[in-house]
């Protein structure tokens, strides 16, 4: 059976064909390899030959037994749909086909002579092109009538899916940290390192005794965040300074650690909060709606094809 990607390619190609010359999807000329023909499938009395299948392989640029079998199943499905269209009186009329061809020529700024020349360059005749276009238009019409028509996803379904799968919309873990920072040059002497570390240790001792951390940051910190009590705000853990991100992993909110040396100096940090943000429903509503709609579209299409197959006589000889 076809997946939704193949389904759309085959059944919705009409829209694309009405906007550009889709010559690459037409039957090939003398370049296709020649085989002794034989019947590979019979669908309600209509045959599919090996040359038909081989031409399909050339068009789709596939090879191998598995691809051959899948292509044949696809061709069988198209036969079933075309037969259903005839039975339902949904054939594309000669006038509709002529209008479609005229529209293609107009969109490509071609007159009849130029159009014929372009087809000839691809090794196909106008009649072959018309036959392929008629099939694509018919398949699209059947798809819209029996698969797409009336298909919808209401917001209650979308909301229910979001609520059931809210973990899928979690953003990376975020941490909120306050710091007291002491500057220290990378090339500082051992004496300079010792002096700055002594100041940092003293600040750490005061913080652990219960002094107000934001007030200590405003008094002692040598970073721009000192003015706001050392508050670094929420950061995605994996985007924080690596040494600080690692130091916070074992902390609970309110706990303090330090001195931590990293580029530029020594840090005394207090973990304020850990949170896992969730993408708001409104931001993913359209994405979920499309996903649910596509799933329903594929399921409906598969069910419809299965009905056509169960009501038909199919002989696969491959």
Topology at a glance:
Layout: H1 4-11, H2 13-17, E1 39-43, E2 46-49, H3 50-60, H4 65-87, H5 94-107, H6 112-121, H7 126-148, H8 155-164, E3 170-183, H9 190-208, H10 213-220, E4 231-236, H11 242-248, E5 256-262, E6 265-278, H12 281-310, E7 314-316
Antiparallel strand pairs: 1-2, 1-7, 3-4, 3-6, 5-6
Helix pairs in contact: 3-4, 4-7, 7-12, 8-12
Structure description:
This protein is 53% helix and 17% strand. With 318 residues, the protein is an alpha+beta fold. Strands 4-3-6-5 form a 4-stranded antiparallel β-sheet. It has a 3-stranded antiparallel β-sheet with strand order 2-1-7. The radius of gyration is 34 Å and the shape is elongated. 20% of the residues are buried.
Q: What class would the helix/strand composition place it in?
A: alpha+beta
Q: Which strands sit side by side, in order, in the main sheet?
A: 4-3-6-5
Distance between the termini: 16 Å
Note the quaternary state here.
single chain
Mean of the pLDDT scores? 86
In the CATH hierarchy, what is the architecture of the largest domain at level 2?
Answer: Orthogonal Bundle
Q: What would you give as the CATH superfamily of the largest domain? A: Porin chaperone SurA, peptide-binding domain
Low-confidence stretches: 1-35
- The gross shape turns out to be elongated
Largest sheet: 4 strands, antiparallel
**Total strands:** 7
- The overall number of domains is 2
Provide the helix percentage: 40-55%
| Helix and strand sequence | HHEEHHHHHHEHHEHEEHE
């Amino acid at each position: 059976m076809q997946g939704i990607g193949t389904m759309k390619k085959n059944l919705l190609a009409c829209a694309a064909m009405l906007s550009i010359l889709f010559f690459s999807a037409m039957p090939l000329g003398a370049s296709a390899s020649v085989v002794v023909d034989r019947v590979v499938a019979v669908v309600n009395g209509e045959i599919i030959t090996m040359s038909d299948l081989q031409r399909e392989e050339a068009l789709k640029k596939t090879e191998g037994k598995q691809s051959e079998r899948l292509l044949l199943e696809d061709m069988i499905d198209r036969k079933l749909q075309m037969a259903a269209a005839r039975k339902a009186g949904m054939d594309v009329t000669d006038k509709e086909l002529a209008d479609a061809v005229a529209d293609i020529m107009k969109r490509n700024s071609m007159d009849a002579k130029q159009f014929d020349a372009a087809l000839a360059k691809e090794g196909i005749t106008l009649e072959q092109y018309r036959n392929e276009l008629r099939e694509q238009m018919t398949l699209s019409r059947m798809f819209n009538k029996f698969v797409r028509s009336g298909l919808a996803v209401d917001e209650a379904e979308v909301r229910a899916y979001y609520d059931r799968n809210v973990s899928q919309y979690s953003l990376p873990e975020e941490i909120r940290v306050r710091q007291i920072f002491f500057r220290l040059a990378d090339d500082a002497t051992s004496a300079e390192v010792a002096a700055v570390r002594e100041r940092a240790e003293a600040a750490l001792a005061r913080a652990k005794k219960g002094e107000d951390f934001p007030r200590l940051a405003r008094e002692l910190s040598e970073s721009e965040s000192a003015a706001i009590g050392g508050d670094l705000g929420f950061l995605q853990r994996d985007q924080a300074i690596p040494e600080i991100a690692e130091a916070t992993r074992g902390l609970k909110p309110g706990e303090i650690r330090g001195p931590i040396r990293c580029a530029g100096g020594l840090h005394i940090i207090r973990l304020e909060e850990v949170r896992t943000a969730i993408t708001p429903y409104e931001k993913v509503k359209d994405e979920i709606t499309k996903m649910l709609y596509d799933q329903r579209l594929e399921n409906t299409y598969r069910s419809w094809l299965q009905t056509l197959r169960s009501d038909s006589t199919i002989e696969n000889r491959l």
